[in-house]
Amino acid sequence: MDNMTLKVMTAEDIDSLYRIIIESLELWTNNLDDMRALVEEINEYFSKGRVFPYIVFNQITNQIIGKARLYEVSLEHGIIEMGSTVYPDSIQINSVDKECVFLLLKHAFQKLDMTQVQIKVDFQNKRAQKTIKHLGICRESVLINENILHNGQVRKTLVYCIVKEEWPLIKLKYKSKIII
């Protein structure tokens, strides 16, 4: 633990993020200018408190190794959604993903004082499902035909949910599995 940190995404991160995304996503068809516009738009939402965009920063290598987001913020109800994570294929994802999920949950519950965090995962994303299950987070529902992807494929989405009362146990499980 403590190898990764989350930093708010800025315009200075665009080139690194673009390299990571084109290495990671076969569906990414946009160019660097599109990436700049996307980061600018996300940061505008951040300034309004509607989204919390992060880069995942490896403190050992001093490099950006991915991105993640907290979004769909409902401060009045204490609910937030977590996701939009991307890592390059070249890194060891398993431990990075677990640490990133933990850091996002910690931020949501301990800094933003959320009462519920939702995680939506594409049915085909077995890696994310394994990470979430490893942390002891239970699946709440399945959304059929929830979204149409850029390639025209209709997405089936798994919805996971963590409530504030479950956070201390999940935190304990995470810390004990990292130490082992």
Taking pLDDT < 50 over at least 5 consecutive residues as the criterion, the unreliable ranges are none
Architecture, CATH level 2? Answer: 3-Layer(aba) Sandwich
Q: Can you give the helix content as a percent range?
A: 25-40%
Q: Quick check: average pLDDT?
A: 83
CATH topology tier name: Aminopeptidase
Principal-axes geometry comes out as globular
Characterization of this structure:
With 180 residues, this protein is α+β, with helices and mostly antiparallel strands. It has a single domain, classed as Aminopeptidase, CATH 3.40.630.30. Helix content is 38%, strand content 33%. It has 5 helices and 7 strands, in the order βααβββαβαββα. The protein has helices at 14-24, 32-47, 93-111, 126-134, 167-179, and strands spanning 4-8, 52-58, 63-74, 79-86, 116-122, 139-148, 154-163. A 7-stranded mixed β-sheet has the order 1-2-3-4-5-7-6, with helices on both faces. A hairpin with a 4-residue loop joins strand 2 and strand 3. Helix 1 (14-24) packs across helix 2 (32-47) and helix 3 (93-111) packs across helix 4.
